[in-house]
Specification:
Blueprint: E1 5-8, E2 17-23, H1 27-34, E3 35-37, E4 52-58, E5 61-71, E6 82-88, H2 92-103, E7 107-108, H3 113-120, H4 126-137, H5 141-151, H6 154-178, H7 182-208, H8 210-218, E8 220-226, H9 232-240, E9 258-264, E10 267-273, H10 283-295, E11 301-306, H11 314-322, E12 328-332, H12 343-350, E13 355-357, H13 365-377, H14 392-413, H15 418-436, H16 442-449
Parallel strand pairs: 1-7, 8-10, 8-11, 11-12, 12-13
Antiparallel strand pairs: 1-2, 2-6, 3-4, 4-5, 5-6, 9-10
Helix pairs in contact: 4-5, 5-8, 6-7, 6-15, 7-14, 14-15
Length: about 450
């Protein structure tokens, strides 16, 4: 028999309302034992999906004043009988109700177990289940909208179309194996090759948009780099629109990593202000400089600040060297001050790297932000109907399917035995099944649902 699970589904802490949820065959029976309707109506007799007012009681002791709703399978989130109790928010009330439910025969849900049951019971496929956690974690409108599209089945539909094309190819191969007439086999190689290129192109389109999808979902990991006193902390504060970092004219004020988030026209920037890059004997500052250099490794974007109002030196050259093979936005700050470097010196330092002359204190922030959008999204974050794969697990599966289709194409060109080509086609099919859960394993499910909170 399937367990009945329960959990607190609202956030911990003081709030107007707290929510305790149950799912499973004993949900209504347990709720019946602890709920007393104000109108003395049994929960069994209360209409499906109708809120009812009353009290949660432990024997004759009132625990809390609540609203309760029962939802009968299969038309529920989990496709099981489900009960939700809306009590007063806070820590004590929800915990007392949860403990009472456990005492009556339910068990505490594991992370993501409600959504896992929705998947196992066929209400959601695995990609839609993953969209649920993305919805919860979304920090911008763009990432939220992408998650909604995935939850509605946009990715599922695209994968289904590709799988149908592969299945049609497999059916053709099976027919030729079952009825081996040479002239039929020869005639079908060309058709199979055309279909294989079409599937490969479909996969390529999904894979090629995944970088944009990742940036929309996770944000652009941005590192501000430069010597002391070039305006790094001023840039951070200006982009955040509040004083997050200390700004002084004393070199080395920032000695550690400072991180914050910026919503840039619907895209999240995880922005990091670092210690000024320079040679120093100060041990604490040295650690800060090393951390600054290390933060570059995982950066999607480096904003490098130079100060042409002062002569360039070896520290500037070290900074430019750190930008090799990285996407970088070079800012010549303090354009409101007189330059102490020539155009030739700038060209010699930057080589063929492009730069912008700005004055952070005089309001160049909008120009800088527009440039970032242009660098990553060609000036447009995401179209209303656009959808991008943004999950690393999905991308790996798509790349696995793409590799299998390359083997299929190679085999068709060499006119290999059809049963060998079929093996590669079925491998591509299995890879795509990993995305929707049709060929998932327990390990994959565990990895997916451990990202969830308890109660969802």
């Amino acid at each position: 028999m399937v367990d009945t699970i329960c959990a607190i589904s609202s956030a911990t802490g003081e709030a107007g309302i707290g929510i305790v949820r149950m799912s499973g065959p004993l949900s209504i029976e347990i709720a019946e034992k602890i709920f007393r309707s104000k109108r003395n109506i049994s929960l069994t007799d209360i209409k499906n999906r109708f809120l009812s007012y009353g009290h949660i009681v432990d024997g004759n002791r009132v625990i809390d004043e609540v609203l309760i709703v029962k939802m009968l399978k299969p038309y529920t989130y989990t496709r099981e009988d489900l009960v939700e109790i809306y009590c007063h928010g806070g820590i004590i009330s929800v915990r007392k109700i949860l403990n009472l439910i456990i005492d009556k025969g339910a068990r505490l849900a594991e992370k993501g177990e409600f959504t896992k049951r929705a998947f196992l019971n066929g209400r959601l496929d695995l990609s839609q289940a993953e969209a649920v956690i993305d919805l919860i974690k979304a920090k911008t409108d763009s990432s939220y909208e992408q998650s909604v599209k995935q939850l509605e089945g946009r990715l599922t539909g695209l994968i289904s179309l590709i799988r149908e094309k592969i299945m049609a190819m497999i059916s053709l191969i099976v027919a030729n194996i079952d009825f081996p007439e040479d002239e039929i086999v020869e005639a079908q190689y060309e058709s199979l090759l055309e279909d294989a290129f079409e599937v490969k192109d479909d996969l390529f389109k999904l894979i090629s948009g995944s970088d944009r999808g990742r940036l929309i979902r996770d944000g652009i990991n941005t590192v501000i780099l430069g010597k002391p006193n070039v305006g790094k902390s001023s840039l951070l504060n200006a982009m955040l629109k509040y004083e997050r970092a200390i700004v002084t004219d004393i070199p080395g004020t920032t000695r550690d990593i400072i991180e914050d988030y910026i919503n840039l026209d619907g895209i999240l920037l995880k922005i990091t202000d670092t210690a000024g890059i320079r040679e120093t004997d100060d041990k604490v500052e040295q650690i800060g400089v090393e951390r600054a250099k290390k933060s570059i490794e995982d950066a999607d974007l480096i904003i490098a600040l130079l100060d042409p109002s002062q002569p360039f030196n070896d520290d500037d050259r070290e900074i430019i060297k750190l930008l090799d093979n990285k996407k970088a936005l070079i800012l010549l700050n303090k354009s409101d001050l007189k330059r102490k470097v020539s155009d030739e010196e700038i060209k010699d330092l930057l080589k063929d790297k492009k730069y912008m002359s700005v004055s952070i204190l005089d309001g160049s922030i909008e120009e800088i932000e527009n440039k970032i959008v242009e660098m990553f999204f060609q000036g447009q974050i995401v179209g209303k109907e656009d959808f991008y794969v943004n999950n690393l697990r999905h991308v790996r599966a798509l790349k696995g399917a793409y590799s299998s289709m390359e083997s299929v194409i190679d085999g068709i060109k060499r006119q290999e035995f059809l049963d060998l080509i079929e093996v590669d086609l079925r491998q591509a099919l299995n890879e795509l099944g990993l995305i929707t859960g049709e060929t998932s394993t327990e390990d994959i499910l565990d990895k997916v649902f451990k990202e969830f909170c308890i109660g969802k």
